[in-house]
Amino acid sequence: MPELLIRAMQPADLPAVFALQCRAHPADYHEPVDALASRLEVGSEYCFVAERDALAGYVFAHPWAGKPPVLHAPIKPCASPHHVFLHDLAVCPTCRGVSASRRLFDAVRLHAIQHGFDTMQLVAVGSAQTFWQGLGFDVVPDQRLHASYGDAVLMQRTRVAQDASRAAQSNPCNV
Q1: How far apart are CA 146 and CA 68, in angstroms?
Q2: Distances in Å between the alpha carbon of 31 and those of 37, 47, 136?
Q3: Alpha carbons 62 and 83: distance in angstroms, whole number
């Protein structure tokens, strides 16, 4: 079985990323390609794909400030970001169990550290809260999210550099 490669996402990856998004998430969370493209443009240093013969997973993240961006709509760069917002992470069902999610997350986390960010935020939808808690995220209480997120919670991880030495040793990012 080929090794899993983590690399920077490119605009040419968006059709395959969109197709995986449609396989991995319920229809309410399928975002149009223009919205995905805007996240890649704003966060090009924080967006990665995992490959194993073909696309195995992806992550969109970008510098941000304030409330999470609305789903399904393009975003613009944030003038004074204070955290990295992890927008979406998905792994092909047939590629689960090879640490693809963790390696994609570590790639984003290491770039956040390199750019001086100590906080990451995300919105956990569906049953994802437990997964993110396992990666050090805590629920931010009493936060109202845009209706586009449905049943979801805002989560945050501070001290992003924690575990950095272990992640750097495993070299999660071949960029």
Answers
A1: 8
A2: 10, 16, 27
A3: 8
